Structure formats: structure tokens, C-alpha cells
Amino acid sequence: MSSAGQYAAISTSTVILIMGLHFLQVRLDEQRAPITQFQRFMYLPQGEHLKIAALGYQHVVADLLWIQVIQAMGERKVTEEAGHWIYRALDIITTMDPKFVRVYEVGGIALTTLVVHIEESNRILEKGIQHNPDVWTLPYLLGFNYYFELHDDAQAADYIAKASRLPGAPEYLASFATRLYVSAREPQVAIDFLAQMYEQTSDENIKRILEQRLKEVVVERDLQLLEEAISRYRERYTRAPERLEDLVNSGLLRSLPREPFGGRYLYDPQTQTVRSSEMKERLKVYGKRRPR
Questions:
Q1: How many helices (H) and strands (E) does the chain have?
Q2: pLDDT digits over 14-73, tens only?
Q3: How far is Cα 210 from Cα 217, in angstroms, rounded to an integer?
Q4: Which long-range contacts (CB under 8 A, 24 or more apart) does 123-129 make?
Q5: CA distances from 111 to 26, 85, 123, 156 (A)
Q6: DSSP-assigned beta bridge partners for residue 265
Q7: Ramachandran area for residue 168 (φ above 0: left; ψ -120 to 50: alpha; else beta)
Q8: Are 117 and 91 in contact (CB under 8 A)?
Q9: What is the pLDDT of residue 290?
Q10: CA angle, corner 108, sides to 102 and 113, nearest 5?
């Protein structure tokens, strides 16, 4: 086939693709099967080819694709395979429109919360930074990945510090980067990080997942607080408390923390251990709180 024929074929395919995407959007409520939502991304051509074939309408095509990705990410369960197709769609959209900052932001978060694809999330955020070097949210989100997913506080601090120097960055980022450099993975640092992330995103699915993570870290912080109070009680009275309320009655705590999932903190005086009634296992990425 001649080059002219190839170009015509690609252009025709693009028109069909746009019409198909519009049809899918109109009938979205009738097509809720996860396979249907995700498998359509496998038929997309390479971003550079689609950009050429869009004939100057690449922003329109990017917007249509983004609508489809948002709907796909709204599925109740996103499989690992579907996560790879989401990344491919995000890569194509940002090739069509490299300045589409919203795609990098939401996509970067979704790839680590809806599915655990850390490398893909980092790649899409790094691509965003390359094309949008003055947007502070992108290195901030990359720092989020290094802190929560890769447990690399130093790298996380580097990216947060970079974000703090960009136009429009909140004033707290510089001091927050300093805290990350010396955090020793304390739960309170994670709580602050998650709370800021929660306020930053408007995607309800991601907010729900961040809220779950935030509650889990709050539980770990509370358990460490209770363990420290139990240890101080033993030092003061040379015996273990019989119940958690003794920590309040002795003045070691002002009040008992409230379990964020709506359950209770349970104490075993025999083993002197505490746990949440709602969480089967404790988080293992945070060390003991340092003595003050």
C-alpha cells in the first residue's frame, strides 16, 4: 500500500474510533461489564500514529479518550491486567496532549490506588514533569509514590522539595520535605501526607481509597501511642495496667483514642498487647515512635 493509502486508512480508522468512542459514551449505562470497559483500550493505535491521524483534532480525541478512562477507573474492581490497559490509554492521551495535566495527576494516583502499578505510575508522572516542568503537583505525587509505595524517604523528600520550589506550591511543602528527610517513617508523617493528598484530589474513587489508608495509619499511630503509655505505666507502678482506662485514670493519657473504623481498641493484660477490633493485621512499614 502506498504512503497516501496508508495515511487515508489511518485517517478513516481515526474517524471510526472517534464515532465509536462517542457511541460508547452515550450508551455507557448499558455497558457495565468490566471486560467491555477495559478491553476497548487494546484496539487503540500508538499515540504518535493517532496524533497524526487526528488531523489537528488531537485535543478532542484526547478528551474523548479521557472520558472513557474515567469511566473505566470507576469500576468497582480494577484487575491487574486492566491496570496495564489504563496505563496504555493514559500514555496515548498524554502523547496526544502532553499538557493535559489532569491526566497525569489522576492517572498517577489511580495506578497506585486502584491497582498497584508503581512503575507505570512513576513513568506517567515523569512524563508529565518532562512536558510540564512548572506544575508542582507532579513531583509532589511522585514523592507520594516513593514514600508510600517504595518506602524511600530520601527520594520522596527530593521530589517534595522540588515541588516546593515551583510556582503556586503551598508554603508547607518545604518544611514537609525536611520532615521526610528525618522522619524514620513515623505514622504522623504519613497521616499528614495522606490528608494533604485527600484534600488535593477530586476523584471520589481515589478519595475513598485514600480515606481507607488514612484510617489504617491512624490505627497504627494509636496503637503505638497506647503501647508507649502501657510501657510508662509499668515503669511507674511496676505492674501492667488491668485495662486501657487505667492509662487515663493515671494521667498518662488525656483520653483513649477513638478507633477510626468504628470499632474498639482491645487490650490483653496477659500479653500486654493492644489491637484494633477491625484490622486483622498491623501495618509493618512504620517504626516505633521515637522518645520525646
A1: 13, 2
A2: 545 554 554 444 444 444 444 445 555 555 656 554 565 555 566 676 777 777 777 777
A3: 11
A4: 123/87, 123/91, 124/87, 124/90, 124/91, 124/94, 127/91, 127/94, 127/98, 128/94, 128/101, 128/103, 128/104
A5: 26, 11, 11, 17
A6: 276
A7: left
A8: no
A9: 44
A10: 125
Q: Yes or no: say if 111 and 69 are a contact pair by the CB < 8 Å rule.
A: no
Q: What does the H/E/C string look like for 96-143?
A: HCCCCHHHHHHHHHHHHHCCCCHHHHHHHHHHHHHHCCCCCHHHHHHH
pLDDT tens digits, one per residue of 104-121:
999 999 888 887 789 999
SS3 content of the chain, % helix, strand, coil (to 5): 65, 5, 30
Collapsing DSSP to helix, strand or coil, 75 comes out as coil
Instruction: Give the C-alpha separation, 250 to 236, whole Å.
Output: 10
Q: Is the pLDDT of residue 228 over 50?
A: yes
E-strand ranges in the chain read: 265-268, 273-276
Q: Which residues pair with 268 in a beta bridge?
A: 273
Per-residue cell: 143? 514523592
Q: Residue 291: pLDDT band by 50, 70, 90 thresholds?
A: very low
* Strand pairing class (265-268; 273-276): antiparallel
Count of CB atoms within 10 A of residue 250's CB?
14
Rounded distance between C-alpha atoms, residue 185 and residue 291, angstroms: 14
What amino acid occupies position 229? A
- Higher pLDDT: 123 or 192? It is 123
pLDDT, averaged across the chain: 80
Q: Kindly give, in sequence order, each residue whose CB lies less than 8 Å from that of residue 119, ignoring residues fewer than 6 positions away.
A: none
